[in-house]
Design brief:
The structure is a single chain. The chain is α+β, with helices and mostly antiparallel strands. Among the domains are: 11-104, no CATH class; 140-193. It has helices spanning 131-138, 141-194, 198-201, 225-246; strands at 11-23, 30-38, 44-51, 59-70, 74-83, 86-98. Strand 2 (30-38) and strand 3 form a beta hairpin. The two termini are 85 Å apart.
């Protein structure tokens, strides 16, 4: 059955469909067993028997429902003939379903799903066994005071250097800002001198009335004869269409 059913977790069989043809003497006794061994124990996980005793040979098609038996229980299948006769053109089909929540850990939406918390391993640090800590604890108070004094003097000298550097940078920055401001003022003054509007406001345009000098020579325009003919033809065509509609 490994070559018949897919290898999927949660797969179970819910029906067996089979078809075969018997060849026999109508007067002879014959039993046909369609069956599957129990892969997890002894006997059969499925067995359906057809009694052909006293019947002529014929073809049978049958659907047998089973109660969702897991695929792991289905062993090798076979068709066994008991009595006189034979079976030809046999075909057996297994209807199955897949329960994707067979293992609840497959998907968080499955009932019974549990969040697995990982086990964190850690080592406890014992400071009393650290060589650096032991050496520091073994030092005398005088040594610690001398070290702190040396560090304090070095820190003060470093702070003085930083203060002097910051004062020099601030003086340079102020001078640069002052020079930039003076340069910008000079540029704005020069630009304002170029944008004087006196040259545009001085000229004047003389006003007055400009009368239309075009005169129409013909007092009456003649009618367009071609247009009249076209209008008349369209009117006649429209009348014919209306008359044809009412007739």
């Amino acid at each position: 059955m490994q070559n018949v059913l897919p290898d999927l977790i949660g797969l179970d069989v819910n029906a067996v469909v089979y078809r075969y043809t018997t060849i026999k003497d109508p007067s002879s006794d014959m039993l046909v067993h369609v069956q599957n061994n129990d892969a997890t124990g002894s006997g059969y996980i499925f067995r359906e028997t057809d009694d052909w005793s006293g019947l002529p040979g014929n073809t049978i098609s049958k659907v047998v429902a089973v109660n969702n038996v897991p695929s792991g229980k289905w062993g090798d299948g076979s068709i066994e003939v008991e009595g006189s006769g034979s079976v030809i053109d046999a075909n057996v089909v297994y209807s199955y379903r897949v329960d994707y929540c067979f293992d609840p850990q497959t998907d968080p939406v499955c009932p019974g799903y549990q969040i697995i918390v990982p086990v964190i391993q850690y080592d406890v640090y014992d400071a009393t066994k650290d060589d650096s800590v032991s050496n520091a604890l073994s030092a005398t108070d005088r040594d610690l005071i001398d070290d702190e004094g040396k560090k304090s003097d070095d820190d003060d000298e470093e702070e003085d250097k930083k203060d002097r550097l910051q004062r020099r940078l601030s003086i340079s920055k102020n001078a640069l800002n002052l020079s930039n401001q003076l340069t910008q003022d000079a540029l704005i003054t020069a630009m304002n001198a170029l944008t004087s509007m006196a040259a545009y406001s001085a000229p004047r345009i003389n006003g007055g009335v400009y009368r239309d000098a075009v005169q129409l020579q013909d007092a009456k325009l003649p009618d367009n004869k071609r247009g009249l003919r076209n209008n008349l033809a369209q009117q006649l065509l429209h009348k014919k269409m209306v008359d044809a509609q009412y007739k």
